[in-house]
């Protein structure tokens, strides 16, 4: 870790990531869709919620521990699966190690750049994430491989609509660094010497492959773009298909992307363990409300029947406490740890988790709460019209 590498907020990690990464890579992490209304609301919504503090009877020590999908964790923040691709040479392995060192769960995308075996070796508490993509025997093969590697749970992400347009333009990322692509990419990469050097040291250039989607018959894994093409070409699943997928996994199962009470109820019907109230970090349909607006209604309707987590827009410990007070068991973070990874590798992800932990602890202290279980809606000012319920 270099001097002054520590950052005190996720916003600072993001500034450093922006400085370090080639602009198309940074742009790929910003992502978002259409006008970016959801992207912005995911973060802005937290600012509309206020805390109702207490001034005495504070707890000298606060207990931040909880569990998600039957796994005990040190704090209510887990790693959401992202195709980390090219942010850092150690990619998901560095993220998994950081999560293990801070006592929490690693969510691994099937589009990730590192093999599930290597990631589970770095963090025994790994959840493997899949999309509805490809033939059924290939899907089963991926699940069997993840199970054999030791993944403890499955995340099925269903909220995606292949909405590719962005008013601010999409980044151009080469599929392979061929000579021609490298020349085109050079104007972005050359001013980013530390990022280039981090790959050069490993004698590898980022190759955008998805090793966890290696076909059953063997051979080379698809490229990221090949994998995306397969997903796009797969007819979307019915609830019967989703039930079939759930039945292929013997263990805890999360449905990610829930934004309605009726879908949350269907998740219970098919035997899901957990749902994530989510809009894919603002990358799905634009103008879906922020998950924190959808959470209270969903929690009220089904919170006693299924475990609920939330992801989208979480950048501070206080955001986490607001989500827990409004009915989430824990949150998943996406860009927050990607900024940390880009800024300072594994130590940067640990730094982000420490920022979260400190923020959660401060909020519990100020609210006069000794543990997460004591948090309630009474701790939060929720303005009229804040909630979105369907
Ligand atoms: C660059 C990027 C890649 C992502 N890739 C995946 C993925 O492969 N699988 C998945 O389930 N979600 C993916 N997501 C969504 C995240 O898991 C999560 O829902 C989202 O990032 C949460 O919002 P936040 O970034 O504001 O924390 C991705 C998000 C980003 C930003």
As residue ranges, the low-confidence spans are none
Number of separate helices: 14
Helix/strand class: alpha/beta
Bound small molecules, which ones? Answer: flavin mononucleotide
Number of strands: 12
Using the alpha-carbon principal axes, give the shape: globular
Strand content: 5-15%
Structural notes for this entry:
The chain is built from 14 helices and twelve strands. The chain is globular. Strands 4-11-10-9-8-7-6-5 form an eight-stranded parallel β-sheet. α12 (291-302) links the parallel β9 (274-277) and β10. It has helices at 10-20, 23-30, 37-48, 91-101, 116-122, 136-149, 179-189, 193-200, 224-232, 239-248, 261-269, 291-302, 317-325, 335-367, and strands at 50-51, 66-68, 71-73, 77-79, 106-109, 126-130, 153-157, 253-258, 274-277, 307-311, 330-333, 380-381. It has a single domain, classed as Aldolase class I (TIM Barrel). The longest helix is centred in the last third of the chain and has 33 residues, at 335-367. α1 packs antiparallel against α14 and α4 runs parallel beside α14 (335-367). The chain has 390 residues and is of the alpha/beta class. Flavin mononucleotide (FMN) binds at residues 28-29, 31, 42, 80-83, 109, 111, 129, 157, 256, 278, 280-281, 283, 311-314, 333-336. Flavin mononucleotide is lined by residues 28-29, 31, 42, 80-83, 109, 111, 129, 157, 256, 278, 280-281, 283, 311-314, 333-336.
């Amino acid at each position: 870790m270099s001097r002054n590498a520590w950052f005190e907020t996720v916003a600072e990690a993001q500034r450093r990531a922006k400085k370090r990464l080639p602009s198309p890579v940074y742009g790929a992490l910003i992502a978002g869709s259409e006008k970016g209304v959801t992207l912005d609301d995911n973060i802005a919504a937290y600012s509309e919620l206020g805390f109702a503090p207490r001034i005495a009877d504070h707890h000298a020590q606060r207990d931040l521990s909880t569990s998600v999908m039957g796994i005990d964790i040190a704090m209510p923040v887990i790693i959401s699966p992202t195709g980390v691709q090219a942010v850092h040479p150690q990619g998901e392995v560095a993220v998994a190690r950081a999560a293990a060192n801070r006592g929490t769960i690693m969510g691994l995308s099937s589009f990730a750049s590192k093999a599930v075996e290597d990631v589970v070796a770095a963090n025994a508490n790994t959840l493997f994430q899949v999309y509805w993509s490809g033939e059924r025997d290939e899907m089963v093969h991926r699940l069997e491989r993840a199970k054999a590697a030791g993944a403890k749970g499955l995340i099925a992400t269903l909220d995606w609509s292949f909405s590719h347009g962005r008013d601010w333009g999409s980044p151009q990322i080469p599929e392979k660094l061929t000579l021609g692509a490298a020349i085109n990419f050079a104007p972005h990469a050359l001013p980013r010497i530390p990022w280039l050097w981090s790959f050069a040291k490993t004698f590898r250039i980022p190759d955008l492959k998805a090793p966890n989607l290696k076909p059953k018959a063997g051979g080379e894994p698809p490229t990221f773009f090949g994998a995306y093409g397969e997903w796009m070409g797969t007819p979307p699943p019915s609830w019967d298909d989703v039930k079939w997928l759930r039945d292929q996994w013997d263990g805890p199962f999360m449905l990610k992307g829930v934004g309605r009470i009726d879908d949350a109820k269907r998740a219970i019907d098919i035997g899901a363990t957990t749902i994530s109230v989510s809009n894919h970090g603002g990358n799905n349909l634009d103008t879906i409300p922020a998950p924190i607006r959808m959470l209270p209604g969903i929690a009220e309707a089904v919170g006693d029947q299924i475990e609920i987590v939330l992801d989208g827009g979480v950048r501070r410990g206080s955001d986490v406490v607001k989500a827990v007070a409004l009915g989430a068991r824990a949150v998943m973070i996406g860009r927050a740890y990607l900024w940390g990874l880009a800024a300072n590798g594994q130590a940067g992800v640990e730094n982000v988790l420490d920022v979260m932990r400190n923020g959660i602890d401060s909020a519990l202290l100020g609210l006069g709460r000794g543990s997460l279980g004591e948090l309630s809606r009474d701790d939060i000012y929720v303005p009229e019209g804040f909630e979105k319920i369907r």
